[in-house]
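seq/struct pair 1
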Amino acid sequence: MIDHLRQSGRFFAIISAMPFMMGFTSAWLAAIGFILFVFGLPVLIGVFAIGAAGYLVQGIRIARQAKSMRDRAIAALAAPFMIGMTLVVAWPSLGAGNFIGTWTRLMVNRGHYEAIIERAKRGHRSPSTDSSAEVDGSIEYVVDAGPPVRVAFNPEGMLDNWSGIIFDPTGEVMLAKGFDGKTGKFAAPDRVTKLFGGDLVGCRHLWGNYYDCSFT
């Protein structure tokens, strides 16, 4: 039974960690994160389903052979408990991985970001092959002239749906709370939702004047 618990515990721990790694990867490399989500997630679900079924059957078999009631209960309930815990932590793990990935990306590039912000405040423009964004080295960014000047770093997404690390010295982006359930309109005022020419849906605070924001 000990081997069963060790093997099943290791299996479900690895499965639980995968959403975290997917979220972390998508924060740094959105394209790879998208591929992992589209192709890797179905594979992960399949492996989880097969492994869960296998360990359930193995647990029942061991429970039938166990001599004490305690051992029978542990063997029979271990896999269902681990399956339940894996399902419970999967979504929070994905969100935590994305947040930590975004935060580490900010910390790694913060000096570069701040240099770009200072130049943006002076009206400096950087050349880019993309008319909607500017590029400085490896950093792509979009400037909202304001006032005050705000900068969206590494905007990534598809069509009008995108996200990025936003520098906002006022913190007003945190007013974006999705839609009003009664009116169907954005909960935040237009001065917030129309920043960067898009529809700002929501933000979460990362550090200082930096926020992780989503647009639609």
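seq/struct pair 2
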Amino acid sequence: MIQILDRRLADARHCAARLTLTVGSVVLLLFAAVAARWERVRASGDQGSESVDKAVLVAIGLAVAIGLAFAIRAVVQEFQGQIKK
């Protein structure tokens, strides 16, 4: 019974790590898209809402940092489980 629970817990950790990495990848892609859009707007000479664009970039950067922190934490926890066994 305990072996089954250990296996399910390991599977759940693995799925959580994959989900975290997937979300982190999506956030990075979103960040790249917004950065490209911002560069196009700047190149066109539009001076409209640069502060809003910068705020959006900062928010996306923070989301990426948080996502990477969770991804690293999930991977470390997964490897700690393997080391303990």
